[in-house]
Amino acid sequence: VRARVMQVEESPDVSYTDIGGLDEQMNEVRETVEMPLLKPEMFEEVGIEPPSGVLLYGPPGTGKTMLAKAVASETDATFIKMAGSELVHKFIGEGAKLVRDLFEVARAHEPAVLFIDEIDAIASKRTDSKTSGDAEVQRTMMQLLSEMDGFEDRGEVRIIAATNRFDMLDRAILRPGRFDRLIEVPKPDEEGRKLIFEIHTRNMNVADDVDFGKLADEVIEASGADIKAICTEAGMFAIRDDRTEVCMDDFEEAWAKIQAEEEDDEISKT
Ligand code: ATP
Known about the structure:
It is a single chain. Helix 2 (23-38) crosses helix 3 and helix 7 crosses helix 9. The protein has a 6-stranded mixed sheet with strand order 1-3-4-5-2-6, sandwiched between helices. It starts with a helix and ends with a helix. The protein contains 10 helices and 6 strands. It has helices at residues 2-5, 23-38, 40-46, 64-74, 94-108, 132-149, 190-200, 212-218, 224-240, 248-269, and strands at residues 7-9, 53-57, 78-83, 112-117, 157-163, 179-184. Helix 5 (94-108) links the parallel strand 3 (78-83) and strand 4 (112-117). The longest helix is centred in the last third of the chain and has 22 residues, at 248-269. The structure holds adenosine-5'-triphosphate (ATP). Adenosine-5'-triphosphate (ATP) binds next to helix 4, helix 7 and helix 9.
């Protein structure tokens, strides 16, 4: 079961230079995650406890997972990822047991960054229905909080959670000593979009006519994940055309295609 739902990476292959347009967020993550891992004695000497949990929130595909991976990689920590939705189970006690397993694995791999994606799946505001399913989800959440509270030597395991649905969260998890560092990870601004284009084309054979500043200005609603998709799709356009150099038109057509697909998705959802 563990192997299926838990992702463990000894040293993920993501560095801070792979992330575009999130300098402020990166600094905050470093301060709260990297410092306690690399210099736990600083906190001891100063006499404060490092923040226990960091919550990253913002729209999908903006680099939340990347931030968590990068900080693990740059501190030589093991990256352990679990999706909140995987912790939701029908059988009583199963979710709580998974949470215990998760922390056990993290302790066994110290230093570790424990990343819980979609935390809203287990930490949404209580709904009205008093079904047993809800009670089970509640117990899973309580187990997570008690594992976090129970850390004697927290320096070696850092906890990062992420959500796209900040408004849905039960405020109880944001109390001091829990996820008490909130970091918003928004969609990139124009400068950020340009940087992300530059990052994802590092290994691409890009023609001289490609203007990343202009592209950044054109792809207004794009997330980092969208920009990555645009770059790959642009490369596909070149290949289909039997060219090995990717030109400006390829990027623009790729964006048009991806937007059309996203609109189709929206329509099929409604
Ligand atoms: P979700 O909420 O959907 O889990 P997320 O915020 O965790 O999304 P990531 O998984 O980090 O998003 O991003 C998906 C991919 O998009 C990354 O692997 C990366 O290639 C690209 N990407 C997203 N944001 C950025 C960014 N700021 N800089 C560079 N690449 C980015």
